[in-house]
Amino acid sequence: xxxxxxxxxxxxxxxYRNNAxxxxxxxxxxxxxxxxxxxLLDNGHTVLSGRLAGAFRNIQRERIADQIMETFRQAGxxxxxxxxxxxxxxxxxxxxxxSPYANRIRLMWMHMRPVVIASLPQEPGLPxxxxxxxxxxxxxxxxxxxxxxxxxxxxxxxxxIEKVSSGKWNVLENEEDQRQxxxxxxxxxxxxxxxxxxxxEQILAGGNAGDLVDIAHVKWYRELFDPSxxxxxxxxxxxxxxxxxxxxxxxxxxxxxxxxxxxDAMPVLFELLQEETHASVRxxxxxxxxxxxxxxxxxxxxxxxxxMNAMLASGGYPWTVIPFxxxxxxxxxxxxxxxxxDIEPFAQFIGYLLTERLAGKMVAGLPxxxxxxxx
Length: 375
Fold this sequence. Notes:
By secondary structure, the protein is mostly helical. The chain has two domains: 4-97, no CATH class; 105-358, Fic-like fold. Residues 370-375 have low confidence and may be disordered. The chain has helices at residues 4-10, 13-18, 20-28, 37-42, 46-58, 62-74, 100-119, 130-139, 141-151, 158-166, 175-179, 181-204, 209-230, 259-275, 279-293, 300-313, 327-340, 344-358. 61% of the residues lie in helices and 0% in strands. α7 (100-119) packs across α14 (259-275), α12 (181-204) packs antiparallel against α13 and α12 (181-204) packs parallel to α16 (300-313). 40% of the residues are buried. The radius of gyration is 24 Å and the shape is elongated.
């Protein structure tokens, strides 16, 4: 087994081309050329040194690239610099960042960003009539709740969703409601939905979407699971923040980040949301990277879809529902992005749904007959 420095030296050019995000992440963790030069000089690796110099220049680590080239020339070697990557990314990774997970999130964002911009329709811009925009969000609530909860395998009906949002659901007085896991999930979804809507109202008033969601998403999460705390199924401390244990995703090859890595990555996600100029990128990559990191023990899918719609609103896009009927396609697209860093299937999937919404069509729906049970 090689250490990281040796692995970078002896990796073939195809490794840099075929695993660009991994390779750039590893390169970003090298602090100084002195970590590499003893091996390179002792073995006279001029070709490998030229490749490494080109790789470092590709990620804008000019100092390390120059040190490698100048040291070999002073030692009397004929060295030629070559870039092993297919293209350059417009990104400046801080040499002070010591977390490879933070750098990886930034690299994923910049790698996937052009694909998202090409796949999603142009943003409409903030609405002139904010009241009408917010009313449209209210009108879509039942459809959104039914589909989002069904994706997570809760058995809900439009009647149950309307009941918990009308005040008829009372976990303290009604034992049947207290026992019903699905009712608690529906009530939590209603409370979280209202909190997301409040955040969207602040975004439409001109606030930075990344800043606002950074602050508000912890409230969304508390609202999502508050009914379970009231019912005594969860402790209040369970809603205190991000997870403290490893989590896994059923039927997925993707393993979410470890607890330490997750805590490094989440601030970077919100920095990227704050800095991003395209609402479509904030929405698409915000959703994807949130579920890629998986910061909570439960509720990550619902939280990711809330985040997506808050960011869509920042560009004037309408609230867009992921249809339960397309669950398998949705999950497969997320899997492709998580495991293979291929964001195109997910971008095209969301792009289609968003195009239909902008055309006034609703791809997602409710059960065909009133009273028909959910999945």
